[in-house]
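Final report, closing paragraph on structural work. Over the funding period we assembled a curated collection of sequence-structure pairs, and we close with a single example.
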Amino acid sequence: MKNALITFVAFLPLSQIYAHGISDSDKQSMLDGSYLVYVRLGASHMLTGYDHLLFLFGVIFFLTKFKDIVKFITAFTLGHSITLIFATFMEITANYFLVDAVIALTVLYKGFDNIDGFQRYLKVKSPNLLFLVFAFGLIHGFGLSTRLQQLPLGDAGLLLKIISFNIGVELGQVLALTAMLFLLAGWRRSASFERFSAASNVGLIVAGFLLFLLQMHGYSHQAFVDDLAFSKASHGQEHLNMAREAGGTANIAESEDSTEPPRPRNDSITISIPAGKGKEYKFHLVKGAVLEYSWKTDGVKLYYDFHGEPKGNSTDAFKSFEKGTEQESDGSFTAPFEGSHGWYWENKGLAAVEVTLKTKGSYVILGVPGSLKYKLE
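Its predicted structure, as stored:
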């Protein structure tokens, strides 16, 4: 038991494992792809969204009538569709760790409700479950929205992109529910269901509590980084050491930060933005580094978003510094934090557009997927 707890704590900061953000490959697919790509990624996101799946499992655990299943799932679907679509379209967001922490508490709540915890331990009547499932759906949808808003979506077809992603989420939910219902239907016919149903819902309570701790741990890394007793690098290394002591063998990338600052440089890069698609180009800057830049298209205005992503943040959250629709831009930028910084351009036209980007400063080029012509001046 001790080793299990140590292993859990050791893996807390590994948000690539526990936080279901949008991966780099999926991110580029969404930038380049059609509405069907958003449908596919929405389904994938739901099928890998452990907190959403745990909550749904708790909701249907004791439901045997088809009309009851439809009623509760409809309430949940309506709730998360409302906030997913409108919060994303209106750009209403919040800290994703805190939103996911609340979602974790909904998992805990459903497990507690399933063991009749209100009557048994609190001596009160359980709240109206249908209303709460709808309300919790609003929270889950807001969580999905905070993840979707981690991507520079651009202006072209924004509403259809959001709706396509939501359709994918619903398709993923249908697939997950189908598997859960078959599993529960078979399990209810066995004697073990009565023996282990209570234990299963206690497991939901424990899972919800541990997920809550995980998200609050991630939030503390993000919000109180200056208050940590040691640096983020040594903090991560300490977690790795704890995992080794507990016998953990997860796929953890153990990388050492370079102690040498980037060298000053001048660069000119020509980036081809395909018709109807978007592309990013990034640099790694340390906090306080100055990047002088100018970029210009070959005569066509492009939507752009100049943004940055903090180092060590694998959930793909970003901060926008400047956005608009222009054919050129220039200036001097001082990095407010260490991490990747750069541009996302979206080409709404019918022909490819070339962007020539010139930069000067101390940085490391991260680049962009795809074909680039790069020269060092």
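The beta strands are 264-273, 278-285, 290-297, 302-310, 319-326, 328-334, 339-346, 353-362, 364-367, 372-376. The longest strand covers residues 264-273. We thank the funder for supporting this effort.
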